Amino acid sequence: MSNRPLPPWPYPRLIAHRGAGKLAPENTLAACRLGASFGYTAFEFDVKLSADGKSFLLHDETLDRTTSGRGRADALSFGELAQLDAGSWHSPGFAGEPLPSLAAILRFLKANDFAANVEIKPTPGREWETGAAVAIDVKHQWQGQGPLPMLSSFSETALEAARRVAPELPRALLVNALPGDWLERLERLGCVALDSNHRELTEEVIATAHAGGYRVLCYTVNDSERAQTLFDWGIDSIITDAVDRISSAR
Ligand code: G3P
Ligand code: MG
Which CATH class, in words, describes the domain spanning 14-64+100-240? Predict the structure, then answer.
């Protein structure tokens, strides 16, 4: 394979997963603040659409696990979602923490010169709509001096939609199991990076990606020794829950 130049990678080597991993309620402003208190300057979070098409943070398809609500997350308007308690499930100290809009999180990150890894996580059936809406929101709401937010998704449909409306935003293809044609998929989607489950990675996969002109990041690495191995192999960034155990100063 002919070597292609690597795209710029203006992102920290460590990215906090869902804001601050498990130390605070995931995908909230409180989580990002806690991650920042450990020195983290880049944050991954999950974004989907409300019934009225507003981008907000939530991991699951339903509200049950991480909020006081019930049922499908896209059944409520953002006005209704904003009334829910997204903190009590975690611990009493976070009671009343709201589900944040994407706009609120981007405001916080921009104000602090932090970097964003925006995972587009559509509810089923809304892949194209979510990819397009989130990309447009990021494009309009970022306008920061810092590095452009990285968009990532397991949904290739969402990535295609994001590319259509905001081709300038960098994209990464998320994979849980590495498909045999992963290089072709990155090429077809115009991605700058592979974002893989770390268990799928080897030194050879990282070297192959780099030779092809793609960066590599991975999730969710919570063991320091594993993180060191991946850095020794040349990984560009890792996403971690262990903001208290894996030093942001690496
Ligand atoms: O973006 C990487 C990682 O967050 C993907 O897995 O399920 O934690 O969103 P998940
Ligand atoms: Mg995620």
Answer: alpha beta
